[in-house]
Amino acid sequence: MNYDHILIRFGEISTKGKNRRSFIERLKQNIKLVLNDYNKLKYFSNRDRMTITLNGEQPDAIRSQLKQVFGIQSFSLAIKCESRLEDIKTTALAAIRAEYQEGDTFKVATKRAYKQFELDTNEMNAEIGAHILRNTEGLTVDVRNPDIPLRVEIREEATYLTIRDEKGAGGLPVGSAGKAMLMLSGGFDSPVAGFYAMKRGLSVEAVHFFSPPYTSERAKQKVIDLAGGLSKFGGKMTLHIVPFTKTQELIQKQIPENYTMTATRRLMLQIADRIREQRKGLALITGESLGQVASQTLESMYAINAVTSTPILRPLIGMDKTEIIEKSREIGTYDTSIQPFEDCCTIFTPPSPKTRPKKEKIEHFESFVDFEPLIQEAVEQIETIELYGEQVANDKFAELF
Ligand code: ATP
Ligand code: MG
Fold it and tell me: Any idea of the CA torsion for 285, 286, 289, 291, to the nearest 10 degrees?
């Protein structure tokens, strides 16, 4: 069938009262970014839904990309025709013919937004249904559970016919809920945490700490790939890469071995928080899940968290590792996360890190060391990359700060 339109229904946007217009506008921008490669598409929106005119673009790839955009409840491929009885009947018949097999059942469900239309909904259902039955063979009506539910939506300007609804990603449009910084490692957890934060409408910028030469270019590329993979949910992703070698070397030298992990996390958090401030974010996001490893016991979180009063969102806090890994497969980050490249934290992890560090103790150990110049230097030497899809947009390196 020659579908020429896509109808997009919004998710929770509908409950957001007066913010509705800006939500819809945001969703439209995100969809346009994700579908940037298809330049013939035209977009229209009103308060109920959005319509994309395909203008000859093939719908299949577009469909799979739309499924990943947050803020879409469902969408359908549609055929448009004029709001005239004969046109509607002809188009309905063509749509069914392209779709049915011998023995199938169908149903016509008309919705009439254009109240002046000559027939009412029941009359339309009967009229179109009869026309289809007269001109096909081996097809019967089943109003309860049809194989082909044909929906006819009559509006004043045009009529849209759709057959299948496809489920969207749900959630809220990325960027509609403010901005937060995702602490992104190369592991399984933090990309999944980023996914959930974006699902609730956060615009996410990733911060990654790397420590050359202890960590390799390939480990860095892995994180670029992960950030690029996440961009498909909102259209783009900004990644800040922080040089962390000097800070880690100073920690190794100055902090007792069983507290180096705690100090490392505290410094990462402080640096990420500075970047957040510069980028005007309001929260930090991590992939922590309670009790998963030594740094994620409640005592550890307490001692680490003490360096900032900025909200730290931990979308995975109640998830088991197996659930997280399953989700990473679903969102497409698994294959990258599983690559065996070293992370700056793992390389410097002592054989027996404190699982119950004391905040007072780490504060005491840190009080003999001036980390401030290194924190500042790290923030100044950030490399910032804008990612659209899995590609780095080289011409779009952010003109930062
Ligand atoms: P992940 O799978 O996300 O790496 P993990 O189970 O390996 O998590 P940790 O290594 O203890 O756990 O890291 C906990 C969190 O700290 C990560 O989810 C991430 O948010 C952050 N983090 C760890 N390493 C880095 C890094 N190199 N750069 C930025 N953030 C990091
Ligand atoms: Mg990790």
Answer: -120
pLDDT above 90: residue 276? yes
Q: The domain 179-398: what is its CATH number?
A: 3.40.50.620
Could you please state the CATH topology (level 3) that the domain comprising 5-167 is classified under.
Answer: VC0802-like (3.30.2130)
- What separation in Å is there between the alpha carbon of 201 and the centre of ligand 2? 25
Strand residues in 159-275 grouped as ranges (E): 159-162, 166-170, 179-183, 203-210, 237-243
Q: At what angle do helices 217-231 and 189-199 cross, to 10 degrees?
A: 20
Cβ of residue 353 lying under 6 Å from some atom of ligand 1: no
| Contacting residues for 74 by C-beta, under 8 A, at least 6 apart | 9, 165, 166, 167, 168
Task: Using pLDDT thresholds of 50, 70 and 90, give the confidence band for residue 7.
Answer: very high
Residue 378 CA, ligand 2 centroid: distance in Å: 20
Q: Is the CB of 388 under 6 A from ligand 1?
A: no
Ion ligand 2 contact residues with beta carbon within 5 A:
185, 187
Q: Is the CB of 286 under 6 A from ligand 1?
A: yes
> How far is residue 122's CA from residue 127's CA, in Å, rounded to a whole number?
9
Which DSSP helix (H) or strand (E) runs through 145?
none
Domain boundaries, the chain: 5-167, 179-398
Q: How confident is the model at residue 390 (pLDDT cuts 50, 70, 90)?
A: low
pLDDT at 184: 97
Residues 141, 133 contacting (CB under 8 angstroms):
yes
Which atom in ligand 1 lies closest to the alpha carbon of residue 289? 6
- Between CA 272 and CA 209 the distance in angstroms is 9
Q: How many CA atoms lie within 13 A of 241 on its CB side?
A: 24
